[in-house]
Amino acid sequence: GVAEEERKREVGGLVRKYNELLKKEQYAAAERVALQAKQLDPDDPAVGAMAELAKMTARVKRAEQDKADKE
Predict the structure, then answer these.
(1) Which of 31, 42, 61, 63 is a Cys-bridge partner for 54, taking CB atoms 3.0 to 4.6 Å apart?
(2) How does pLDDT run across 28-47, given as a tens digit for each residue?
(3) Strand ranges (DSSP E) for the chain?
(4) Which regions of 11-57 does DSSP assign to beta strands (E)?
(5) Is the pLDDT confidence value at 51 over 90?
(6) Dihedral sign of CA atoms 58, 59, 60, 61 in order
């Protein structure tokens, strides 16, 4: 229905925003956006994976930075 289309459009906008934030390496903000998308579409596994990806990427970047700081 109309509500379903509106929800999908909103999720699509959040996915685009999420991708922009990842490119800017703003992982915490990307994770928040992903969680918003997951609330709108909890049954979509791709949306659920977005938050996990942002979280893991942030951890990897932090570990790389810590390693570089020690060298």
Answers:
(1) 31
(2) 999 999 999 999 999 999 99
(3) none
(4) none
(5) no
(6) positive
